[in-house]
Amino acid sequence: MKVLRIGSGAGYSGDRIEPAVELAEKGELDYLVFECLAERTIALAQQSRLADSEAGFDPLLEERMRRILPYVVSSRGGRRLRVITNMGAANPVAAARLVRRIAAELGGALKVAAVTGDDVLALVAPDSLLDNQQTLAQMGDRVISANAYLGIEGIVQALQADADVIITGRVADPSLFVAPQVFEFGWAVDNWPVIGQATLVGHLLECAGQITGGYFADPGFKDVEGLARLGFPIAEVGSDGSVVITKVAGSGGCVTPATCTEQLLYEVHDPAAYLTPDVTADFSGARFDLLEADRVAVSGASGSAKPSSLKVSVGYLDGWIGEGQISYGGPGALARAKLAREIVLERLRLVGVECEDLRADLMGVDSLHGAGIGARGPEPWEVRLRVAARCALKGDALKIGNEVETLYTNGPAGGGGAVKSVRQVVAVASLLVDRAQVLARVHLEDR
Amino acid sequence: MATVKLRTLAHSRTGDKGDTSNISVIAYRPDDFTLLQEQLTAERVQDYFAELLPAGAQVKRYELPHLGALNFILPGALKGGVTRSLAVDAHGKCLGAALLDIAIEAAGTPH
Description:
The complex is a heterodimer.
Chain A: E1 3-10, H1 18-26, E2 31-34, H2 41-51, H3 61-74, E3 82-85, H4 92-105, E4 112-116, H5 136-139, E5 143-148, H6 153-160, E6 165-168, H7 175-185, H8 192-205, E7 233-238, E8 243-247, H9 257-265, E9 274-275, E10 280-282, E11 287-292, E12 295-299, E13 302-304, E14 309-329, H10 333-351, E15 357-363, H11 370-374, E16 382-391, H12 394-405, H13 407-410, E17 416-434, E18 441-445
Parallel strand pairs in A: 1-2, 2-3, 3-6, 4-6
Antiparallel strand pairs in A: 1-7, 4-18, 5-14, 7-8, 8-12, 9-10, 10-13, 11-12, 14-16, 14-17, 15-16
Chain B: E1 2-5, E2 10-17, E3 20-27, H1 33-39, H2 42-48, E4 60-64, E5 69-74, H3 95-99, E6 103-106
Antiparallel strand pairs in B: 1-6, 2-3, 3-5, 4-5
C-alpha cells in the first residue's frame, strides 16, 4: 500500500520555523504544507501590494524558503519533497518569482507555481449584501479586498504540471492538504466520503503544533513535555484512506487521542456539516485510536456534496482603535484602578470624544470573562486599566490613550507603566458567491 | 453527592469564526460523559456567559458521545469578531478556561 507523508510546517503566519526545518530534514515527507493566512491578513497584504506591485505576500516567505528549499532541491532523485503554501496572500505570482530566485541561488532549478483566481473584487456585484448587513456599494471606497476561498482545483492542476513549490492566495485551509491526497491517490473529487476524510486530515493538521501538544498543556491536569522544542505533525495517509497522525521521533510535545479531539472541534460548529469548497465534511463519526506513543489512527469521517457557493472574505477600513493602559499595585490597587477608570470615562465625555464603541477593562479582574465571572477571584495585588475605543476619526482615537496617560499627574496615586497606541482597523466581513463565477488559474515560473 | 469543578472531569479548547465562539468540553474519562451531558446543558452555558452574550443569543450544543465531547456554539460572543472587537482577547480564546470553573454534581467520592 502506498503511504503518503504530509507535514504541517506552520499554524499561522508568524509561527516557529525550526519545527518545519525538522520536518523537512527528518520527517521523510512527500509534502510540507504551510498555512499562514489568517482572516484579515490578505486585506493587509493587498494594501502592501497597492503600495508596491512586487509586495503583498507573507513577510516570512523568504526566510522560510531559504531554510526549507535546500531540502526540496536535494530531494530530487530520492524521496521527492514538495511544498504547498498560501503564503502568496495578495500576490502569489510575485511570491513565486521570489521563490524561484531563491531556489536558483541555492543551486536548484525548481518549478514554482502560483495559484490565482481568488481575488474576486472585480466580480462581486455592488449590491451584494455582507454579513455585517451592509452592501459593497454602501461600504464604497473603504473596501480593500474581496477574496473567495478556493478549493483544491488550482493546487491539483499545479501538481499535475509537476510543480515543486505551489504558492496560493486565499484557499480554504484544509484544501492545502486535501489537494496532494487527491493528486497522489487519484481519488474522484466527487467521492464525498473520501474527500470528507481527506478534509479531516487537513483540518487536524492546519494549526500545526495545536495537535502535537501545543495549546494543550494545563499543569497538573494535562502535562506536556518539551514545548520549547515542539514537533509539528505528520499525517501518514494510506491509499486505502487510513490515516495516522504522528510527529518526528525525539521532538517535543505529544500526539494523543485527547490532543486530536481538541483539534477536531477547534473552530468547528456543527461537526456533521463542516463546509469547505471541496465537500460538506462530516466529522461526527471521527475516531482516534492510540496505536503506540505519539501515533494516533484517525478514522470515521465522511462527507456529502460540496456547497454550491463559495465564501468570500471582504476586507474594509473601519475607523481607528485608540487604546491606553496603566497599572496600579499594592494595597488598594483595585479601588485605585476603578477610580482611574471612572476618571477616564468622565474625561472622554467632557472632552467630547466621538466613539462608535468603547470599553474600559481592569486586566487581572474583568477583562477576559466580564465582571460577573471575574468577581469570583480574590482581590489581585496588581491591576491594569485598559481603555479602548473604535472611532471614525484618528484624532478621536488618539485621545483615548492620552486620557489614560494623563492619569500619571491627574489620576489616583501610584499609577505606572502607561502605554498608548492607535491603529487603523482593517475589518473583515463575508458574503457568498456562486462558485461558477470563480475560476482558479495556475501560473508557472519554470524558466 | 459531591460537587466538583468541571476542570477535574474535562478539558476544553476554544475557537472563533467571525462573531461566534465555539467551546469544546471533552471528558477525561468516558464514564464521566453522561454527567456532562446531563448537567452541562446549552441553557446552563448560556446563563454562565450571559454577560458576554448579546440579547437573544441562543447557545447551541452538539454531542459526540463516542469521543466524550460536547461542542458549544456561542453566537455574538465576540463583539464583532477578532477584526473589530475592542476586547483584550478578541478571539475569545480564554473563554473555555472560565467554563472549566463551573460546578458539576458527581455521585460518590470526587476523583
